[in-house]
Design brief:
D-Maltodextrin-Binding Protein, domain 2, 5-stranded mixed beta sheet, 3-stranded antiparallel beta sheet, 10 strands
Length: 332
C-alpha cells in the first residue's frame, strides 16, 4: 500500500520527495460530523481517510442529528459533514446559509426516498398508492398492533424525513388510516424484515442508499408505491414523477419526493482557509452502487467501516490520486 507522501511525490514530482510540511493539511485540523443513520458512515470514512492523505488531523466524526449539526456548522463548532440531502434538507438552510455552504456532490441524484409495501400484498390487494390505505381491508392487512390503522415504519423525530412523511400523512388526510412508527429506524426496520420473513405484510419508508433495499429487493420482495395523484397543499419541494425506478408500481413513479444530491455542508470560514478541501469536495464522487454494497455487508455483520473504506480507496487508487493531486494543486 502506498503511503500518502509517496503518492503525492509521484503525482507532483519525480525529482524531489513531498515532505509532510508540503501537504495542504499540515498543522491543520478538521472537526468532522456524521449523521445518526449509519448507511452514510461508509462514505464519511472514505472522505476522512482522504483528508488524512492530504495531511489533515481529523477529529471525529461526531454523530449528530440534523438540527444540531446544522446549528453546529453554522457556529463553527464542527467544520463539515458529507450528508446534506438537497432539496430534502432545504428546510435547514435558514439555520446555516449565512455561515456555511453546500459543496460538491458525494452522490449526485443518488438519494431517492419513498414508500414501499411487500409485493404479495400489492398484488393481492391491488395497492398502488398511499390512498389505498383508506380501504378497510388494506388497513387491516397492515395493522400489526390492533389499533385499526396500518403500521408504517417512518423516521425518528429530528430527521429530515420525519417532516416529509408527516406532510404527506397530514396533506393526504391519512392520519386516521396510517400509524407512524417513529422508533429507532434500524431497529424498526429489522422488526419489519422479520415480520415479512414470518409472512406478515409490511409498509415502510426508506431512502437510497440503504441496506433495506438489499434485504428487501424492489420488484421481488417489495414494491415502491406512489403518493396520491391529487392536488394538496404541501410545504415539500415539488416532486415530478421519476422514470425507470426498479420495482415501482408505475412508470414514471410518483414517489412524492424529488431525487436528492448527497453533498458536503461546510463552514464557510473553514473553506476559505482550506482551498484544498473545497477542491477535494468538488472533485470527488462515490458511486451509489458501492455504497449499497457496503451497506449490505454492514447489515450482514461486517462493521469494520475503516477497513472497508481503505479497501475502496485502494481499488480506486488511480481515480483517488487525481482527486488528491487536484486538492494539492489548490493549496493556497
Amino acid at each position: 500500500m502506498k503511503t500518502p507522501t509517496l503518492i503525492l511525490a509521484a503525482l507532483l514530482s519525480t525529482a524531489a520527495p513531498v515532505l509532510a510540511q508540503d501537504l495542504p493539511g499540515d498543522g491543520k485540523t478538521v472537526n468532522l460530523a456524521r449523521p445518526t443513520w449509519d448507511t452514510s458512515w461508509f462514505h464519511t470514512e472514505i472522505y476522512k481517510q482522504l483528508l488524512k492523505e492530504l495531511g489533515y488531523t481529523v477529529n471525529g466524526p461526531q454523530t449528530l442529528d440534523n438540527p444540531p449539526f446544522y446549528q453546529a456548522v453554522a457556529y463553527g463548532d464542527v467544520d463539515m459533514w458529507l450528508d446534506g440531502w438537497f432539496p430534502l434538507h432545504d428546510t435547514y438552510r435558514p439555520i446555516f446559509e449565512e455561515s456555511a455552504e453546500v459543496v460538491g456532490a458525494v452522490a449526485p441524484g443518488g438519494a431517492m426516498e419513498g414508500y414501499l409495501v411487500d409485493k404479495a400484498a400489492a398484488d393481492e390487494l391491488g395497492i398502488t398508492s398511499l390512498d389505498d390505505f383508506k380501504r378497510p381491508e388494506v388497513r387491516e392487512a397492515f395493522d400489526r398492533n390492533g389499533d385499526g390503522k396500518a403500521d408504517m415504519v417512518a423516521c425518528p423525530p429530528g430527521w429530515g424525513c420525519e417532516v416529509g412523511i408527516s406532510e404527506h400523512i397530514e396533506g393526504y388526510e391519512l392520519g386516521d388510516d396510517i400509524n407512524l412508527i417513529k422508533a429507532g429506524y434500524a431497529a424498526a426496520m429489522a422488526d419489519a424484515v422479520a415480520a415479512y420473513q414470518g409472512g406478515e405484510h409490511i409498509l415502510f419508508y426508506t431512502w437510497t442508499p440503504n441496506w433495506t433495499l438489499n434485504e428487501l429487493v424492489p420488484g421481488e420482495d417489495v414494491v415502491w408505491i406512489q403518493v396520491p395523484d391529487r392536488e394538496v397543499d404541501l410545504n415539500l419541494a415539488p416532486a415530478e414523477p421519476i422514470a425507470d425506478i426498479d420495482g415501482c408500481v408505475a412508470n414514471p413513479c410518483r414517489l412524492g419526493y424529488p431525487a436528492s444530491d448527497i453533498s458536503a455542508v461546510v463552514n464557510t470560514n473553514f473553506l476559505e482557509d482550506n482551498p484544498a478541501i473545497r477542491e477535494l469536495l468538488e472533485a470527488a464522487e462515490i458511486p451509489v452502487k458501492d455504497i449499497y454494497t457496503q451497506n449490505a455487508a454492514m447489515n450482514a455483520g461486517d462493521d469494520d467501516i475503516e477497513a472497508q473504506a481503505a479497501d475502496w480507496i485502494e481499488k480506486n487508487r488511480d481515480t483517488v490520486d487525481g482527486w488528491i493531486k487536484a486538492a494539492v494543486d489548490a493549496k493556497s
